[in-house]
Amino acid sequence: MAYAQSPQVNGNAIDSTSLDIVAKKSDGSVLRLGSMFKSAKYGNKITGRKALHGTSAQKVGRSFGVNEPDGSLTLYKQAAQDFVDWLGDGYLGVTFDLSLAYVIRGQSAVITDTVVGCQLLGDGSDVSEGGEPVAVEFPLDIMECVLNGVAPIPAELRANR
Are 149 and 77 contacting, i.e. CB atoms less than 8 angstroms apart? Predict the structure, then answer.
């Protein structure tokens, strides 16, 4: 089935033929989303960072804080149902990774981002008047977003060092 709109990743239009999204569960099963998605949003965010002043009025350092990755996956209705069926009963508690491989215009290298340890936080359908295809948004609980093999947290601060 052809989908009406070009997928977007973090707000940047990516040609649908150059983007491949694959979901993988811990049991090794894989679901290739390909052009079945409307958008994917993901990223890392440091929260709780605190300034260090010591006895100085001027800031002399800072704590690292904690990584609070966030994201969502929006799929067209049939694709969303295929995704839920693939996850199975208890789909809100199933852990999976997302691999997003794409080519940025003007470059030949493939960039692969990995969204690690995802679980769905819920699901919500978007049914609009007119010709817009029905879509389902899945907010994600994410452990970490690794951008083209680069981890957001230094090795010495990672949980699995």
Answer: no
**Domain assignment of residue 120, yes or no:** yes
Q: Which two tokens stand for residue 8?
A: 């977007």
Distance separating alpha carbons of residues 44 and 69, to the nearest angstrom: 4
For the chain, the residue count is: 161
Residue indicated by tokens 């969502």: 72
Q: Give residue 130's domain range.
A: 8-48+66-157
In sequence order, what are the residues at sequence separation of 6 or more whose Cβ sits closer than 8 angstroms to the Cβ of residue 128?
A: none
What confidence tens digit (pLDDT) does each residue in 6-36 have? Answer: 555 565 555 666 778 899 999 999 999 877 7
pLDDT of residue 15: 63
Q: What's 111's domain CATH number?
A: 2.30.110.20
